[in-house]
Amino acid sequence: MTPGTLSAINRLLTKYFRQTPSPVVRFMEARSAAPFHVLVATILSARTKDQTTTAAVERLFKEVHSLEELDSIPPGKLETLIFPVGFYRTKARLLKKLPEAVTRLYGGIIPSTVEELVKLPGVGRKTANLVVTEAFDKPGICVDIHVHRISNRLGLLKTRTPAETEKVLREILPRKYWKTWNRNLVAFGQTLCLPRHPRCPDCPIHDFCRRIGV
Questions:
Q1: How far is the C-alpha of 136 from the C-alpha of 36, rounded, in Å?
Q2: N or C end of the chain, less CB within 10 A?
Q3: Domain final residue pick, 136, 155, 178
């Protein structure tokens, strides 16, 4: 795709994001942009619907606001607060390891680079990129299932895994679009460009889409 086409797609997706209520918007509203909130919320969101994560995040952040408070909360209570997010027991264990790891590796300060963040328990590249983008306002490309699926459906790339998609997007997507690409495509994928039976007649970027796999 040409730079002009990418610009048009990004503009239309941004407009759609701003005008259309979606689960990801509610999820973003449930946490602040503080690094601790973004990091914990994103760890909880893995393999869990945004609606479920949002409710868990709202319960958790009423009682836990810092790494110190996360360290002191009893494991059983933590599990109760985040239930029923997917793999809640595993995520509770990972969260309990987080304060010690941040203190040992980074002096108690949540780092701001992908390379540093992925050394923390429960943090993969998807989580790290989202923290870099949402908490530190730095360019990052967070690739979840929506970004991977829609980028391929558009014909923008041809990849098999989210890791491959991140690598290709870093090469072809203008840096100025990196920070908003994830949130735009997640909202789009949750409400219109569905995995099955996408609502193509209502799609604002229909003219640019190759509809791969549809």
A1: 11
A2: C
A3: 136
- The pTM of this model reads 0.89
Domain end call among 74, 104, 136: 136
What's the CATH number where 107 sits?
A: 1.10.340.30
H, E, C per residue of 13-74? HHHHHHHCCCHHHHHHHHCCCCHHHHHHHHHHHCCCCHHHHHHHHHHHCCCCCCHHHHHHCC
Q: Give the model confidence (pLDDT) of 139-177 as tens digits.
A: 999 999 999 999 999 999 999 999 999 999 999 999 999
pLDDT in tens, 91-107: 999 999 999 999 999 99
2 contact partners, CB below 8 Å, separation of at least 6? none
For the domain that residue 183 is a member of, what is the CATH number? 1.10.1670.10
